[in-house]
Write a structure and sequence with these properties.
With 76 residues, the protein is an all-alpha fold. It contains 3 helices and no strands. Helix 1 packs parallel to helix 3 and helix 2 packs antiparallel against helix 3. The protein is elongated. The model has no long low-confidence stretch (mean pLDDT 86).
Amino acid sequence: MSTSTATTNTYGTNAEIAFLKHLGSQLTRKVLLRNYINAAPKRTVWGSIDKTAVLLFAEQLLAEAENAEQFVARAA
C-alpha cells in the first residue's frame, strides 16, 4: 500500500525530472536548461512539484552538459 496521496493523473516532481532528462539535443540542451532555471522564479504554479529538488536537478544537468562540452573540446 502506498502512502502517497498523488493520483495517476498528478503531474509532480518525478514527471518534471523526467521532462528535464529529455530536454533538448546535445546542441540545445545547455541553452534550454539555463532558460528553465532562469524562468523558474517567474513560475507561479508548481502544484505537487518540489521546486527546490527540480531546480537542483536542472542545475546538475546543466553542469554535466557543460562538463561534457569541455571534454569534447579538449579531445578535439
